Amino acid sequence: MAIQKGQSAPDFSLFNSEKQKVSLADYKGKNLLILFFPQAFTGVCTTELCSVRDELSMYAGLHTDVVGISVDSIFTLAKFKEEQQYNFPLLSDFNKSVSQAYGAFYDEFVFEMKGVSRRAAFVVDGNGTVQYAEVLESAGDLPNFAAIKETLSGLN
To answer: pTM of the full predicted structure?
Structure first.
């Protein structure tokens, strides 16, 4: 079951594409936009993350950090980040526990792949409370970025 607005965000500690451990606790006192995405180098994931990359200054203006999470390896995420020039951390949930904890998980995905992150967006406030939660059924859909921005504007 997906995490809902008003719940405490599940803690996590994952490695980023630079091989450094990143935890939810690192963002205490800040707003955090967590974007789960199915797979690096796919069309919709690239479109989604590039739109965030291009608007990162807007998120910074709303006192919000951004992280992307997928079950890809740190090495795949490093290449994806480099090629697309992402300016925010990409975290590897290779063991799939964080995607499952947030309810952002496909048991079975396309081409009979098992255990892939669902496309999802969560806004976590500085106290660790989820203020926005969206888990998409279709990997071809994008999160409602207008609603995310509205939520973030209301937190500042």
So the answer is: 0.94
